[in-house]
Amino acid sequence: MTLLALLLSLGTLSGLATAHPQTVLDPDDSDGVLDIVGARLGHETYTITETHGTTPDRHPTKVRLKLITYETWPDSVISSDSGSYVRFDINMDRDADVERCVIITYEPEEGEFTALAAKFCRDDGVVMHVRTFDGRPKRPDEHSIKVSLAKRFVAPGPDSVSWRAVTVQADCMNGPAPACYDETQWKRHRF
User: Fold this and answer.
1) Residues forming a β-bridge with 64
2) What angle do CA 137, 12, 24 make, to 5 degrees?
3) What is the 8-class DSSP label of residue 42?
4) How confident is the model at residue 182 (pLDDT cuts 50, 70, 90)?
5) Euclidean distance between CA atoms 145 and 36, whole angstroms
6) 174 CB burial (10 A radius; 0-12, 13-18, 19+)
C-alpha cells in the first residue's frame, strides 16, 4: 500500500457518518512496524426515542478512534503478553495529566482484540480504574486498527478534549534494545 493510499484510508472511520473528525499525521520517525502514519478521532451523535413517552430522548455519542501505521503488522505484534500495545490518550483539562486512555491489545487465547478504557494513564504503563467495554477493536487492513466506544468512557464531561495516539512495540529490534515507541502530536477535538 502506498503512502497516499494510507493517508486516504484515514478519511473513513467506518460506514457511518462521523462528525467533525480530527486527523493528526506523524512522520516516519520510529523503528519497528508500529510507526504511526496518522490517527483520527471523530464522534457520532444519535437519538433514541421511547415510544411510550416515559423516557425523554437521549443523544448518546459514539467516539471513533483509528490508527494507521507505515508498515503492515500481524495481530500478534500487540499481543497482551508481549508488552506491546496501541493507546489513545485523552486529556480533558489541558494540564499535564492524561485523565483517560484506551489501550488496545490482542488476546491470543481468544483470537480477538481487547480494548480497555482507563483513568489516570501514564507513559510507564501504570493505569488506574480500568474497565472494559463492549466495543471490539477491528482491523480494516494490515496497516490499521479502529475502535468505537461510548463517549462516557473517553470524556464523560467536557465539550472538548486533547488527544494523541501512542504505540509501544516491545523487543522490536535485535539485541538489548529498548522498546520502539511512537506518538503523535496532541490534537484538540470538540464534541
Assistant:
1) 42, 148
2) 85
3) E
4) very high
5) 11
6) exposed
CA distances to 2, 98, 167, 173 from 181, rounded to whole Å, are 23, 17, 6, 12
**Domain extent at residue 139:** 3-190
Rounded Cα–Cα distance for residues 63 and 43 (Å): 4
pLDDT above 60 for 160: yes
Cα(119)–Cα(89) distance, integer angstroms: 10
**C-alpha grid cell for residue 59?**
443523544
Residue written as grid cell 480530527:
22
Please write the tens of the pLDDT for every residue from 10-49: 554 333 345 567 899 999 998 889 999 999 998 887 666 6
Query: How many Cβ atoms are within 10 Å of 112's Cβ, its own excluded?
Result: 12
Question: What's the number of domains the chain is made of?
Answer: 1
Written as one string, the DSSP assignment of 71-140 is S---GGGGBTTTT-EEEEEEESSSSSSEEEEEEEEEETTTTEEEEEEEEEE-TTS--EEEEE-SPPPB-S
